[in-house]
Amino acid sequence: MATDGGIYHYARGEWHAPSLSHRRIRLQKGLYADFHHFLLLGDGAADLHFDSGEDRPLHGPLLAFLPPQARCDLSIAAGSAAHVIGASAQIMVDAIGDKVESYSLRLLTEQRKLVEARDPLLVAEMSPLISGFVRELGDPSRASWMVVSAYLRLILMTLWRGSDSERSEPRGQGETGSILQRYRQLVEAGFRQHRPISDYAAELGVTADRLHSICQRTLGRSPIQLLHERVVQEAKLRLERSARNIQEISDSLGFRDPTYFSHFFKRKTGLSPAGYREIARASAGSENSMLSSGYADWP
């Protein structure tokens, strides 16, 4: 899946052993400008110096997640040790996948702020995962996209479960909120299968009319609109961030042929998949409101 640049254009993994002097590292630089970063700090101290002028002291043991928008330098104090790993949008998409938990992982990774986890048990659970990520990249003869992606998925799941993110997700209120949340989870797991809405309703134990009423009243959209929005959102993301061709993307989203996928995508967005990809590539690094931007936009 990695192109001629190899895995090192898409992931970084560094172990910074204790040193007699402090070290300062620019996290978002060069190839790493748009990476998501994780910092695992042992028994020691460090500081984050954000471009906004904010300084954040850190004291280990601690795990920190920094999205691309949290642009900063990392200063590691003398005598302190830290792992720093980073992943491009392409590997993040692969690691997050399209399972039931994927929507929650996307919400976590789309946050535009530092996420800290200080629980010693969480840090201990995360340590071998991040060390494994670094070791995999440390051997060029075997560094594997699949292994790096697998480690990253475990890291994200561990962070989501161990931080406040899982408990703080909006769930809605009462029976309506519960049904809507469960519908969202079912769509997340099955949007590529193009199942009829009646199947989702039956699995939720409600009629299709009841599900339509809940979605329309709460979100102002029908269940089929929400389902189609989820498919379009995934298509946009893959067109923006993956190297797959249109037919491969069409196949991965469960369409019977790429022509049907192209018609569906153009009907929903006003652009062909190829046209959308051209705009996405031309807009790389800029704020373009028509691009996918993130999964937090999907209700």
Describe, in short, the structure shown.
This protein has 299 residues and is an alpha+beta fold. It has helices at residues 89-96, 102-109, 120-138, 145-162, 165-168, 174-190, 197-204, 208-219, 223-241, 246-252, 258-269, 273-282, and strands at residues 11-16, 23-26, 36-41, 45-50, 55-59, 62-66, 72-76, 82-87, 115-117. Helices cover 47% and strands 15% of the residues.
Name the helicity range: 40-55%
Rg value: 21 Å
What is the total tally of β strands?
Answer: 9
Number of individual domains: 2
The total of helices stands at 12
Globally, the shape reads globular
Low-confidence stretches: 1-5, 169-173
- The secondary-structure class comes to alpha+beta
Mean pLDDT: 86
Overall CATH architecture of the largest domain: Sandwich
For the largest sheet, list the strands in their spatial order. 1-8-3-6-9
Q: Sketch the major β-sheet.
A: 5 strands, antiparallel
Multimeric state of these chains? single chain
